[in-house]
Amino acid sequence: MKLRQLEMCLQKIQGFRSPKADIEQYMTPAPLAARLLHEAALAGDICEMKVVDLGCGTGMLSIGAALLGAEVTGIDIDEAALKIARKNAEAFGLDIEWIRMRIDETAKPLAADTAIMNPPFGAQKEHADRPFIDFALLTAPVCYGIFNKGSIPFLEAYTKNTAVITAKTAALLNIPKQFAFHTQENLEIPVEIVRLERIA
């Protein structure tokens, strides 16, 4: 599937009905999700692979990976989001496993080929992204994540004994006004799509 075709499919996915600020529930925009997944697919990390989507929300990355031929498991703590994700997957005729689980130091890693995620950036809770990084690298030898621009030095230091960054792509994350503390109708945040490969 071509990048533009994937993006058009993902535009149909329903987002959060009542997003929760404390767990940073922002829907990954379709263009950004499509770009991450397209790059992962070109690298051979999606098609016919077992893929786990961490903090899957309403299923944007999960559904995109499944459309590209992956066997997908989506994980999220919010049952309301998972309910929407199930309906979104059904609308596409996709069979995706959905698991309600909190991703923290007590979470038991799964076994997968690739982990994908748009983790919390830590705007509401400092270091909220760290359990996601840890879980991803315990779950799969390859991880793709969306991180704030300028996070590369942190990622390199944080994962220096567990993984290496093998690719990075500059992109933009569009956040529409959805919480009371938002002051702009739309905010574009520079981000980077990062591929981490676990050190054997």
Automatic annotation (TrEMBL):
The keyword Electron transport does not apply. SUPFAM superfamilies: S-adenosyl-L-methionine-dependent methyltransferases. Gene3D superfamilies: Vaccinia Virus protein VP39. GO terms for molecular function: methyltransferase activity. It comes from the Archaea. Residues 47-127 form the Methyltransferase small domain. The keyword Methyltransferase applies. One of its GO terms (biological process) is methylation. Pfam families: MTS. Keywords: Methyltransferase, Transferase. InterPro entries: rRNA_MeTrfase/Polyamine_Synth, SAM-dependent_MTases_sf, Small_mtfrase_dom. PANTHER family: RRNA N6-ADENOSINE-METHYLTRANSFERASE METTL5. This is Methyltransferase. It comes from Methanocorpusculum parvum.
